[in-house]
Amino acid sequence: MGIQDRRIRRTQHRLATALIDLTLEKGFDAVTIRDITERADVGYATFFRHYKDKYELLKDVLDVVLIELVSLLRTAQPTNGPGSTGALIFRYVQEHNEVVRALLGTQNLRQQLLKAATETTISESGPRPGSIIPLEIASYHIVASSIALIEWWLDHDMPYPIELMGNIYEELIARPTNEAALLPREQ
Predict the structure, then answer these.
(1) Burial (CB count within 10 angstroms: exposed 0-12, middle 13-18, buried 19+), residue 46
(2) pTM attached to this predicted model
């Protein structure tokens, strides 16, 4: 059973890597399943044993990224200093910049990312007492602003170091939004 599981994971990884590479080369809409299987060196029929279409494969990639980011952010300690959460985000983006570029460059998936990350933020936060800003608006704002900052950084070839981007994230996005509307839920 373990050998089969490893083969499945290896095949899925190869398909995901091929999809990301091809998306960066020619755009998601131009990528075909045949392109993906040829790049991954996987049989065409094998693709359909794992996914019904390229959208399901891309959704699988998105799910992995979200799980990794949420896990990373849950381990962040606010006492690690200003910008530490932002530095974690930007370190992840730098280390996985090809995947992030592919996800953000696909409009449908960008919307799914925005929705899923907003829902996660809502579940991980609570409304600040006395705030006039509804939780769903504050959550959407912090996620959309974070995505915009990440896109800017990637579009400009990551001109500033991770630590500075973490501080910029903290000062422009996290601190003002948290002070105005969000409280972390008790763990």
Answers:
(1) middle
(2) 0.80
Per the CB < 8 A criterion, the answer to whether 88 and 166 are in contact is yes
Q: What is the pLDDT of residue 187?
A: 45
SS3 182: strand
What is the three-class DSSP state of 147? helix
How far is it, in rounded angstroms, from Cα 187 to Cα 77?
A: 12
- Percent of the chain exceeding pLDDT 70 equals 92
Residues 103-116 pLDDT 10s = 888 777 788 888 98
Contact 102, 23 (CB under 8 A): yes
* Domain formed by 1-51, architecture: Orthogonal Bundle (1.10)
- Backbone dihedral region for residue 12 (phi beyond 0: left; psi -120 to 50: alpha; all else: beta): alpha
pLDDT of residue 169: 95
Residue with tokens 């990637």: 154
Beta bridge partners of 184: 125
The CATH classification of domain 55-184, taken from the options 2.60.40.2310, 1.10.357.10, 3.10.290.10, 1.25.40.10: 1.10.357.10
End-to-end CA distance of the chain: 36
Please give the Cα distance from 111 to 106 (Å, whole number): 9
Q: Mind giving me the DSSP string for 55-104?
A: HHHHHHHHHHHHHHHHHHHHH--GGG-TTHHHHHHHHHHHHTHHHHHHHH
